[in-house]
Amino acid sequence: RHFHFCKLPGRVMGIRLLRFTSVVIVVLLLVAGALTALLPTIKDDKMPNLRREPKAQSQSALDSFTLIMQTYNRTDLLLKLLNHYQAIPHLHKVIVVWNNIGEKIPEEMWNSLGPHPVPVVFKVQTVNRMRNRLQNFPELETKAVLMMDDDTLVSAHDLAFAFSVWQQFPEHIVGFVPRKHISTPSGVYSYGSFELQNPGFGNGDQYSMVLIGAAFFHSGYLEDFQRQPEAVYALIDETQNCDDIAMNFLVAKHTGKPSGVFVKPVDIRNLEKDTNSGYSGMWHRAEHLLQRSYCVNKLVNIYDGMPLKYSNIMISQFGFPNYANHKNKM
Amino acid sequence: RHFHFCKLPGRVMGIRLLRFTSVVIVVLLLVAGALTALLPTIKDDKMPNLRREPKAQSQSALDSFTLIMQTYNRTDLLLKLLNHYQAIPHLHKVIVVWNNIGEKIPEEMWNSLGPHPVPVVFKVQTVNRMRNRLQNFPELETKAVLMMDDDTLVSAHDLAFAFSVWQQFPEHIVGFVPRKHISTPSGVYSYGSFELQNPGFGNGDQYSMVLIGAAFFHSGYLEDFQRQPEAVYALIDETQNCDDIAMNFLVAKHTGKPSGVFVKPVDIRNLEKDTNSGYSGMWHRAEHLLQRSYCVNKLVNIYDGMPLKYSNIMISQFGFPNYANHKNKM
């Protein structure tokens, strides 16, 4: 049919049309030129979100990131972390996702101890949900999101380096905690870490997910998360778990590559013991790991396939912390 | 002027032309469609050479590499290395660049000790030149080239991993030996390694070159090397040095990014001491390093600018050699 259209001109061609044809050719060239000029850059290509950028962005918003931290039942820890993270290089804003339903936010106290170098926005939630932190917050003005659990401390140096790595891999989740799924002969997937290995896999190890509790990723993915099947939200709410696994599925589907890039942290700590609330993280629940294997299999059903891919790339900073870390001292 | 052309149809428009215009629109859509279909993939985009692929390539040629090794005056070492490298995974062919002018190649002996798993081609040269190894050899059928100095041994494991990294960074030189240039207030560049540091540079170190004496790179760059300014060849021949620096300039100019990706080797060795020829590598010459700084400055003049960019990314294999190498033990 296309071909038929293309032939038409030949049949109705007249003198005027000849002149007109030259115009057509010029127009075609112009269109070709225009389209070429419009070729997406590599990053755009991987990031449709970059093209439908929702907000005007200041320069600083382009080379900086927003810290999103969800908190529940550990306000003392939260305040410690807010202080720790106030002066990270390239930090544009902090968004605190307040899951302490009905509890007053510590904004007054926070402000009374100001001034603070970076603005902190408290987002009061109406329901305590794991996936509250995955909203496309209007206050979010940067392309880069740093998401941190409210019990995890990563050194400023690790964060600055990981951000520079993310800028080179903006379509990936660039973070400090790798995990993997493995296939079993039964066809059921299992979730885990170094203790699991795919049968017959050679030297070394692999990961297929990078957890978002300590990672950089593109804000466009928060937008994409709003357009997932209802069953995904139901699964996350039912388990109060697995939002990070779902994000890795989403990114892997979007890129067709491994979802994450693992940056080896020099100094990462869990501050859980420092809280006085006595509350300890969800991952201590007996069913936590079982749930995560359950989620992997559920998500494979929902998305009708396993999008996660393996990577064995580990990135460290050349010459840091010791100048000769490129010399092998195993 | 373009705009003027676009308006023309409006003026000469008639009934027939109206019908014709719809055809034009369809044609435009077809062109748009075609152009979209022709959008380069990321790798093609970085690698024009992929598009003007000179030779038909077997599947194995696509997921394998060619080892190019230049040798001079250390045939005993060469034979050792040929044996070492015969069974590397994904090795498609070995090309030996024979710089021992007038000397017989050891092909007979090599064949008498066959069969060998991988074909070895001896390329007899007429002049002993450093840049002989940078020819676009007709025997080269793979996209990936592994170039090794004739005194360097890298473990099969490191090579297999680095090849997998190269497949993810095909427009870069992926190798095991990082170097850098630094700027001085005088405007003169200096060449070196960890002992040099840019003034006021923060934590850690950087590199701006990856030497091709132990690296993977795209065969298209050998093609590109044939189209460099004469002055580049003259510089390399005059110094019998710096061909690797020139390649880094070429790649950096081509990509607009850092030329190299540094893979931290687990086991790399210099076998120089194992030769009976008593001959030791060019890099022992007193003037070697001075020449390399000299070359950097010359190349900046020839290319009218400094294309080299810094990187501080160091890639290791996750979980190898020890399963917990992602845990920090500094």
Automatic annotation (TrEMBL), chains A, B:
Keywords: Disulfide bond, Glycoprotein, Glycosyltransferase, Manganese, Membrane, Metal-binding, Signal-anchor, Transferase, Transmembrane, Transmembrane helix. It is an enzyme of class 2 (transferase). The keyword Lipid metabolism does not apply. Gene3D superfamilies: Spore Coat Polysaccharide Biosynthesis Protein SpsA, Chain A (3.90.550.10). It is found in: Endoplasmic reticulum membrane. Its cofactor is Mn(2+). The chain crosses the membrane at residues 20-42. Belongs to the glycosyltransferase 47 family. This is Exostosin-like 2.
